[in-house]
Each structure stands twice: as structure tokens, then as C-alpha cells.
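Task: encode each sequence below as C-alpha cells.

Item 1
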Amino acid sequence: MLQDLALLVSIGFILEALCTNMTGFVLDAIPTTTFSLLIVFIAVVRWNLWGLLTIPVMTAATILGGHFHIVKGLASIYDWKCYLSASIGLLVIGLDVIAFKKKKTNKIIQSTIWIIGILLINYILYNLVQLFFFRLFSNGNPFIIGESLYEVIIENEDGTISKSNYYMDYGVIYNLFGLAVSVIGALILRSQGVVNNVVDKLIEDKQNAEMLKKDAEEFKVDSLEAKEAEEESKPAIDSEKN
């Protein structure tokens, strides 16, 4: 399990850091997730709640990529408040386990509608929870927009002034790239057999191996009985000929 999660999070870390930086640069935005939604989702599908162990590393990749944003004011938003709020937000993916237990994981994964539906719900809940806690950490009140005890003022190219915290309120838009990556990535990886529950797969493989072994034994017994019956019938045939 640890090797599987380590490989998954290693690939995800690189993709998350690079794409967070490039997406922020191209769109002049501050995405808080690009590949992390997909990576954590796959980890939870494969290892249930153990998959949530990937979250601290994935959010660290987000902060690393955002820290090198070309706009210094926007780069400053990727701080401890962003790290904690994004980490807490990604925890909502753990709720997917409820659906996986009520309806077998592999049955859900085989349904395109189910996958897209779950990923869309994950996306909406993530943005709501992440913004709630970011505001809470910023000013102590999650229902106040754009204010912060740690305010950073940004001078825009057109000469206007913006408060950095306002950018977080548009996270549901800035993170759309992450939603697209999640849906497309999950469907592609499903076709490659990557998106599956490892425990269920091991049990299924064991059951299939036992069935094959049983069939082989039954076939061997049937063949032996047929051979014995053939040998028993030979004397009778020989006596008839004589």
C-alpha cells in the first residue's frame, strides 16, 4: 500500500506544483487545486480512507507552485492559511467511501455517470469548505468577504488596487481546470485499470484463482474417470470380439 501511495503522490506532486504555477501564470489566477482532486480521488478509490494520507503532500505541492507565481501579490496568498484550508477542503473526498460501501466501488467506477457525479460533488464541496476555512483563518469570520488580518494589497496592471483575499472568492472559477483534469483523468485512467479498489481487486483475483484451480481439479478428475471407464470397457469389448 505504501509503495502504491508513494508512487501516486510523487507523480501527483510534480504535476500539481507545475500546473498550479503555469495555470496561475496563464490565467492570472490563484488555483488551489489542479491535479490534487484527481490524485486524492484515485488514492481513496484504491485504498479507501488511507488515500487521504496523500493530502498533506499534494497541498504542499500547491503552495510550492503558487509561491513562484509571477505576480508577487498573488504569490503571497499561497501561505499557511491556503495550505490548511486546502488540506481541510480535500478531506471531503473521504465522503466518497460512503458511496463506495453502499454500492461496490468497482460498480461505481464502471459507471461514467457515477464517476462524473462524484467528482462534481467533490469539486463543489471542496471549494465551499476551502473558502470557509480560508476566511475563518484570515479574519475569524467565514462569512465576511475579502477581509483579512493579514491583508496584502495588489496593484493591478490597469492601476487599480485589489485586496488579495478577494481572489479566493473566485476559487470555484479558478479551479475549473482542476475539475476538468479530474473528470478527463479519471476516465482515461479507468480505461487503463488504474482507478479501482486494490483490496476488492485482490479478493476478486484470489476468487478467480480458486475457481480456476477448482475447475482444473474437476477437469482432471473427469478425465481420470473417463480414462478408467474406457479401460474397464476394453475387456468387455475384447470378449465380444472373441
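Item 2
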Amino acid sequence: MNHFLKSVADWMMDKEDAMAKQCAVPMKELEYQITKVQEQKVKVQAQYDDAMAELDDVLKRLEKIKKTETLHCNLAP
């Protein structure tokens, strides 16, 4: 599905590029689209940062558990 959506977006961008060469794209529309994409980019970056922080926390906890397990298993008779 992502490939399909990317193909559609690429097609739309190609059409808008062709229209821009004919001065047929209103500047306000382009500015609006740019603003919306920038807002979406900030939102996606924040979601990515949150997910990475959660994964880093899980990884640290697992490393700590591994250390504890290693100490106890190596010291146990």
C-alpha cells in the first residue's frame, strides 16, 4: 500500500511541477501545501523521537537485567 501511495504522490508532484512551468499553480496553494508538509514533518519527527526514547529505555532495562542475570548465574554454585 505504501508503494501505491508513493506512486500517487509522485504522480501528483509531477503534475504540479508541469503546471508550475505553465504558471498555473497559485502561490497561496503552494505555500499552504508547504506549511502542511512542514507541520506533518514536525509531527512525525516527534513521534519518531518518542518511539526511539521508549526503545532506548527498554534496551537499557534489558541490559541491566542481563548484567544482573549474568552476575547471579556466574556466581551461583
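Check on item 2: The mean pLDDT is 91. The radius of gyration is 24 Å.
End of task.
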